[in-house]
Amino acid sequence: MVDDARSGRPEITLVRWPEQEATRLALRAEGRPRMLLLNPTTPAPEPGDDLEDWVRIPVAEADLRARVSWLAHRLAIDRPAHRADPDPMIDDDGLFRVGDEWVALPPVEHRLARALLDRIGTVVTRDALARAGWPQGAPGRNALDVHVLRLRRRLAPLSLTIHTVRSRGYLLAVSGPASARASG
Amino acid sequence: MVDDARSGRPEITLVRWPEQEATRLALRAEGRPRMLLLNPTTPAPEPGDDLEDWVRIPVAEADLRARVSWLAHRLAIDRPAHRADPDPMIDDDGLFRVGDEWVALPPVEHRLARALLDRIGTVVTRDALARAGWPQGAPGRNALDVHVLRLRRRLAPLSLTIHTVRSRGYLLAVSGPASARASG
DNA sequence: GTGGACCGTTCACAACCGCGAAACAGGTGC
DNA sequence: GCACCTGTTTCGCGGTTGTGAACGGTCCAC
What we know:
- The structure is a homodimer.
- Chain A is an alpha/beta fold.
- Helices cover 36% and strands 22% of the residues of chain A.
- Chain A binds chain B through residues 43-44, 47, 49-50, 53-54, 56, 60, 62-63, 66-67, 69-70, 72-74, 77-78, 81, 122-123, 163, 165-169, 171, 177-178, 180-184, and chain B through 43-44, 47, 49-50, 53-54, 56, 59-60, 62-63, 66-67, 69-70, 72-74, 77-78, 81-82, 91, 93-95, 100-104, 106-107, 154, 157, 183-184.
């Protein structure tokens, strides 16, 4: 992939328009940002996706640069919401992955994590968790607490948080900067 | 209300710049979109948030209209996730959700909140609330007041307000629009 | 107007209990 | 043997709930 959210600097291609309409369409198809340089006499195009902007030529070079940098900036602050934060997932080898980061989970925590992940964003009962973690019978009461604690610490580096919902259960959520607060 | 998430068509304000910098800042603070009309000799401003665009004047009216419509279009396809202000709801796990934010409610407050939410926008009598909160008999008189107070504080971060209607009861409502902004 | 009844807000406190967390010990795989 | 996984015990913090009391506002009788 050429453009990349991580790089922070997607390349913005300048496109003469309408002369290079073909180029524009190609870029759009690839999801790459572009700046249209509008022929002096052509009406402005209809709004397309948000990876596109345009400027009427002739234009002062400073203004063109400014507009490109605005577009780049918009992409930089827009992207994270749409694109970043790839969905967390568990593969069958006991690896919990988020994007290109991962942690290995031991058997019990692996089953707990799967149960939580299956219902990510919603509350999972302690009962349900216990059943998921120990299919043929749970050990003592506190075993679950301890394992949740350890799982919590293991997942923290991946920006995942296990919230406690007191007297109800646990809730897995991405602990992004603008996350909600729980009180229990 | 002037700007409105529900309408889907936020008003875009035209702002002369830099003359009306104060207006620009005010609009930004309120999270309202705006189009800067750049003084012919002023360098373009630094990129701000993505509710903003600019055009160098003098400009053909058609081009200005086009640019405004591009900005509007961008908001329409960008915003829905942020702006929608989805209706508050209570799920069965004791979570009170508004959009992607939530708080956990303890049992009593959960029942009170459900009673209030079921009649959101209308008055719920103290009697009805007491019955909802304590199905098999209410405790002391003050208990309800205290729990409403605590529920009030818990719901405030979600932009929800419990209004008192003296000698009648309580009323749940979404609080003013000028709140949730600014976090990004 | 004044005092008082009524109503609602808020704080402080006590009792209860769910859960967090550390420490420890046995088990297992390499 | 060593590192790790697992489960238990134990301690205590902090959230929940209800009560009492102080405070302030509204309305009515006088």
